[in-house]
Design goal:
Elements lengths: L2 H5 L3 E4 L5 E2 L19 E2 L10 H20 L4 H4 L10 H24 L4 E2 L4 H5 L2 H5 L2 H21 L2 H4 L2 E4 L3 E4 H7 L2 E4 L9 H4 L13
Parallel strand pairs: 2-3, 4-5
Antiparallel strand pairs: 1-7, 5-6
Helix pairs in contact: 2-7, 2-9, 4-7
Amino acid sequence: MGIAAKFGILTLQLCYKGPMSLDANIPAPTAPDPRYPVGKFKRPAPGPLPEGELASAMEAISELPSQLRNAVSGLDQAQLNTPYRDGGWTVRQLVAHIADSHMTACFRVRMALTQDTPTVVGYDEKAFAELHDSLHAPVEWSLELIESLHARWVMLLQSLTPEEFQRGFRHSEQGVMTIEFATMLWRVRSTSTYPSRRPTRSQLRSKRSLPSIRPPS
């Protein structure tokens, strides 16, 4: 069993640009990709979201901070500096990256609410993950940032009217999307299993493939 299952992130699939297909007609891959254990996200056709989808998305955003904190609880410094899969980021970089990408997502909502279809641009998440603070800052800083950010993000989303959810922004690569649709795309689907004991160094260095967590750039 790889590091993800060992320290609590059994499956953490962010429905973002990485796993998202911009063409609703592109079928899901037939062979499973170890980076995306639940399959690549297939962007639905424009139109009203299925009943309950928006509420489910907001609930998932609300629950992520506690799930993430539980997932990294008990890891020592060596484990935090271990890549969560071969060729991937360290656990420390991953948590810092989630903070970066979710700050961006929340900011885009605020822009859409205060401007008429503003244009937003992507960012180089790989370069961000190599910055000094992403590599060396205490994980607790990122966890606290995520907790506060998500509290405000969810508070704002819960205050919106149906009309406000239809406001939107224009992504430089993905085109126009409403706050409602973007919230569904930002939804975090996670299934967590928490170990009965802390993983060993050899378990953390397992060479099995692990799910990739990809942000919206």
